[in-house]
């Protein structure tokens, strides 16, 4: 446990540092979008590029990993919507609640954290989950959120808009470029390699710091008071139901003969146990959903994940550095 805490404590401490810096005004609110853009368009793409170059393509796009993870994500989406819908929470808000229940913070937190815990081999399965959530989970939930009042045409338009948004996201393209360089056995050299490496090295600390700042900003822009019963159950679905479902589904797939290794299943389960993706709060503002509820789900899952994720890694017998 001590070895696991030696990895998880600094990660969550940096999130807290970002939140405190924004709260105390050390980091101006106007600077948060720029910090987020730096991570999204520069640091994290370089990190994923390097992992893409060093990971076999079949690990980046493992069909069995994708099927298990996507099946669980879809089940979590529809289960969360089913238990969330009521007189106060309509389909739009239930759909965005389902998105944060099924979409872990794999980009900003998951890749560096799981690689630090489990080694570079964890990058392949985690990158699979990023691609699945960017293109399928997000598009589905955004489409469902627009069915309320807009009908099927509005949902289709929203889904296409979400797919275009995913295609304009630099993360999939950096993964694809890394895979192409890997296939072509092309290595970055000289100043280009140095710049990419420097940006990649900055991704983890800056991304974690940014998560905290974004969470603070989301809370500031939440103009509604959300009852505890409207957001805490969704956070618990994210942290407990989602990873348990991934573990059970993966184990069943193994029993049916799917070539899913124990290590891959462990990585998928730990990825599902991560807190909710912080940037979903920005989507709720864009689509006019209850940003206060989503912000509280993300905040609750992030705070509780320090204990739940660490405990799960310990139960799996994770030994960092071994």
Q: Major sheet: size, sense and barrel closure?
A: none
Poorly predicted regions are: none
- The total strand number stands at 0
By secondary-structure content and strand pairing, the structural class works out as mainly alpha
Order of helix and strand elements from N to C terminus: HHHHHHHHHHHHHH
Shape: globular
Count the DSSP helices: 14
**Residue share in β-strands:** under 5%
The CATH topology label is Na+/H+ antiporter like fold
CATH hierarchy class name? Mainly Alpha
Question: Number of folding domains?
Answer: 1
The CATH level-2 architecture is identified as: Up-down Bundle
Mean pLDDT across residues: 89
Helix content: over 70%
Q: Between the first and last Cα atoms, what is the distance in angstroms? A: 14 Å
Radius of gyration, rounded? Answer: 19 Å
